[in-house]
Amino acid sequence: MIVFPPIRPEDEQSVTINRTAIANPQNFVADVFQLTASERVPRQWLGDRAYHLSQLATRQEPILPGVVVSGRLLRDIWQKTPWREPLVAELSHSTLHLQTNDARQLQSLAQQISQALLEVELAEVHLEALVQETQHLNANSFIFHPSLYIDRAQAADSSQDPSAELVALLNSHVSRGDRTSLSQTLKQSWAELFRARSLLYWQRAGIPLEQINLAILIQPLQPTLASGLLNLRSPWIDITATRGLPQTLSNGYTHPERYRLEADRGVIHQQELGNPFCYYHLDSTSGAIEWVAINPEELEIPVLNSQHLLTLHQQSQRLQPYAGDEADLEWVLTHPNPDVAPTWYISQYYPQGSPNLRWPNPANVQEQKTSSPFQRQGIAASSGQAHGVVSLLDDVAKLPLAQTETPNQILVVPYFEPQDAPPCAHIVGLITEGGSRTSHGAIWARELGIPAVMGVAGITAQVTSGQRIYLDGDRGQVHLDPPQTTPLSDSSSPLSSPPTVMSQTPIIHGTQLFLSVSQPHLAPYLAQLPVDGVGLIRSELLAQSLALTQASPRERLQQLSEGLITMAKAFAPRPLYYRSWDGGRPGDALGLRGTLAYRQDATRFEEELTALAQVREAGYDNVHLILPFVRSVGEFKEANQRIQQQGLDPSHGFQCWLMAEVPSVAVLLEDYVQAGVQGIAIGSHDLSQLILGIDRDDPQVADQFDLTHPAVLEAIARLARSARQLKIPCTLCADSLPPESRDRTLEAFVRCGVTGLSVSQEHLESQAWAIARAEWRLLLDGFWGGREQGGEGSRQ
Questions:
Q1: Which of 687, 755, 770 is nearest to 722 (CA)?
Q2: pTM of the entire predicted model
Q3: How many whole angstroms separate alpha carbon 211 and alpha carbon 216?
């Protein structure tokens, strides 16, 4: 914990330089020195940033170490450099000839000065001292901060402090520790004072260059756990925190953690846990600063815990007697060595406040939901994060095949249609304008193990192909033009990813556990999981995976057969249930789809039946059929007749099931079984859609779509009871459950009495445990219910 001793009022008077500097004014020791050894250096040569930290250093406060390049060195170089442009030379004492409304003159002048400064040769004694002093900071990389001092007594308006506004215009620069980099970065930092925007400001403010002194504060860059700001504005203390380096706060891609505390007691008055997606990280080996994506697990952990807040509150209390009712500081929590405890430092400090160390007013932060202008919000549909480039479907269709193989493509479409999606193995994410977690696009993404965000309004008009983009499938966020990052996980291709890893502990449950999967290339991996088979192969997603829409009829039949054989072989002897072509599209849930569409055109259906027959002829009799969206017994009979004409006969072990997704099936199930149905797979998405009257693909009503609605559960329970009475299996598709309600929903389905559940590979082990726990609760409910009935009987 950091403790601040009492601080004496600031001494504004300049002091004399040390004796060595007086005896030899050219001695470089007066111009480059450790921040902790600057107590006798005049404030004008330190600049305000370094001066305020040096005042804390004299009081043994935990300031971040640093090296100061005196402002006198720049002044000496300016005065001794033979400027080629007369106007440049006049800047040191005159503002008469600079036309501040002439943008071309400003830009030209800024470029001349910058180029001239970069060409300046530092004296060897100066450069050697710079190298030696920075070596004492024990770092591979450094940050060069401008430390500005303006003679307020001579300024045009002495009531104002122009240095605070001007320093906000000057950028800091990062440097490596070698001689060349240190020298160039120092000169780049000096050139900041002469950029066009800086020239414009101090010329309009009427401040001659001779009144401006620019020192450079060099601080080490170290691996940093957290950083932030503390703003004291009595009676409040505002604290801003982020993971990683302080530079994270200067961009628009992170929304930090924020607190407002009562200054006297430290009680939290308001708080906002933030909404970041990445942060600046220092690679301790290379010294490079990288953007790092935040793992979903990290999002649940606040940057600051109660002890951190207590430390920052105590710091502010120690500063208040010195600063009064207003002060701003920047803090860092560094951790350069894993074997040593993290260390708190004050990296910047302004006792009277500074605009560049101030976050926007956090009043009512709990009600505000600010976001970056580069951020878009949608529906979290498939977990994970991905960095990549935008791939618009129309643009992909126009490209040669070779150009569609660009790595890390993120597909951005109005609606995801499996038959329209490109057969690209380099797609690492999906963003759609329409749809929800139960849409085909979301299901497809979860099968592939890539993140997806649905329902991002107008996104296709806001991006262009090749544009950089970042998506977070856990929070439903999309970030446009993010900085280059180093993700915590490789997003190069989902196809080589291993399946979900499960522990060796056996999970005992009576309800059968199936996978919903339609990607043949994943079958060899997924077949290693402890499941009872594949409960649902969606034909549209299988066709997309096999690129069937790009094939000729003959090739299509062959590829479909081979894809099904791949899956059958991997899972044998466990069963696989193939759901034939549905044909439904978003916004057309009640149109010509399912078996009704086969009446108009049965070509595709008959092709599927031929492929199924070929699979069985190849010796794989574990593949069966599910008919989609059957509206009437008559439709089923017509489809079943075509099935038998292909030789797919129940007497040879072939099963024909029904997708129970039209509510009338719950009433007419006995009639369907008499017509030849051998099992049902409840399509919970369409069934809920039709019962609740809510379009599953409309993001505007997605939050109203509830699979556990009493009416939905009653229909499922009725189907399960009827199936049990008719002695046929009854499974249910449950592969689109939101994580926050997954366990509760699975328990509700188990209580309805279904015999099997088809789930996604995502979080498979936790789903298996949720099913087991639901069954244990049912057993306990029955046990205690029996005890209570028995007790009542005995009392009678």
A1: 755
A2: 0.56
A3: 17
- pLDDT for the residue 208: 79
The answer, yes or no, to whether residue 405 has pLDDT greater than 70, is: no
Name residues whose C-beta falls within 8 Å of residue 51's C-beta, 6 or more positions apart in sequence.
43, 147, 149
Cα dist from 280 to 31, 246, 618, 754, whole Å: 32, 8, 56, 49
User: Nearest Cα to 735, choosing from 460, 537, 603?
Assistant: 537
pLDDT digit string, tens, across residues 192-230:
888 877 877 777 777 877 888 999 999 999 999 999 999
Position 384, amino acid = G
Neighbouring residues of 361: CB distance < 8 A, sequence distance ≥ 6 = none
**Looking at residues 410-423, what average pLDDT do you find?**
79
What are 655's two structure tokens?
A: 């099963």
Q: What is the DSSP-derived secondary structure letter of residue 156?
A: S
Question: CA triplet 72, 138, 33: central angle to 5 degrees?
Answer: 20
What's the rounded Cα separation, in Å, for the pair 577 and 290?
47
**Strands of the sheet with 278-282, listed across from one edge:** 278-282, 289-293, 485-486
User: In the prediction, which pLDDT does 114 show?
Assistant: 82
- Please report the DSSP string for 507-539 in residue order: ---SSEEEEE---GGGHHHHTTSS-S-EEEEEH
CA distances from 230 to 263, 274, 315, 349, 617 (A): 11, 16, 9, 9, 74
Distance CA(110)–CA(193), nearest Å, equals 9
pLDDT tens digits, residue range 574-584?
A: 999 999 998 76
Strands 257-262 and 224-233: unpaired
